[in-house]
Write a structure and sequence with these properties.
The chain is an alpha/beta fold. The protein has helices at 24-35, 37-54, 60-71, 77-92, 100-111, 124-133, 161-169, 186-190, 202-212; strands spanning 10-14, 115-123, 141-147, 153-156, 175-180, 192-198, 217-219. Helix content is 47%, strand content 18%.
């Protein structure tokens, strides 16, 4: 019996930094902002306000939301979603970004009958495009969501404790295993019977141990 009361273990994977290297959404935002002069100008204008927010654990969601809005200005909804999907497909085929051992671990959980969920701060369309390219399109995803028309708006930034809220909306209060590479996911790790840090430095392990009140397991999937 799993932590959530069903058959098979419930396993939650973070996406960026675990299954793929780097921050997928940030990479796309930089590309989109750089494509148009007015986006670059707006990004420069808000930089003094947005960057301190991005560097704050508490306000990072707000800072990221500002740059997300800027990056998609001028893109119709269908075009914006295709850009997200195309970028996801590109990541899925990029050997520099994909973490094969992490993907193999995910597949092993599925083969063992575990129920796997992806919890990501990146936009849902991008994450689903990556999984579809890996033929893992049936794996459930909770991720950030945006609307692009009539205006650009972040509907949900699935970051930190918001991941637990999104999982809770699906009826999951706890999970058997959680994989993450970030202290931002402490709420996700705290709600897991087995908290697993991916590619963690000794400093990250010490900080996580102090805040979790237990020593997390560690795996190296680089």
């Amino acid at each position: 019996m799993s932590a959530s009361g069903g058959e098979g273990r419930l396993v939650v994977f973070d996406f960026d930094g675990v299954l793929v290297a780097g921050d997928s959404m940030a990479s796309l935002l930089r590309r989109l902002i750089g494509e148009r002069w007015y986006r670059r100008a707006l990004a420069i204008l808000v930089f003094p306000i947005a960057m301190p927010l991005l560097l704050s654990t508490r306000w990072k969601s707000a800072g990221a939301g500002i740059f997300r809005r800027i990056a998609f200005i001028g893109l119709p909804g269908a075009t914006a979603r295709e850009r997200l999907a195309a970028f996801g497909r590109a990541i899925a085929g990029d050997a520099r970004r994909v973490r094969p051992r992490a993907v193999a671990a995910l597949r092993a959980h599925l083969a063992a009958g575990d129920r796997v969920l992806i919890a990501s701060g990146s936009e849902e369309t991008l994450v689903r495009a990556v999984l579809a390219a890996w033929e893992l399109g049936d794996v459930p995803v909770v991720a950030s969501q945006m609307q692009f028309e009539p205006d650009v708006r972040v509907l949900r930034h699935c970051f930190g404790a918001a991941k637990c809220v999104a999982l809770g909306a699906l009826g999951h209060a706890r999970w058997d295993i959680a994989y993450s590479d970030s202290l931002a996911d402490l709420p996700l790790l705290r709600a897991a019977d087995r908290a697993v840090l991916v590619n963690a430095s000794p400093e990250l392990v010490r900080a996580a141990t102090a805040q979790l009140g237990r020593t997390p397991e560690c795996v190296d999937w680089r």
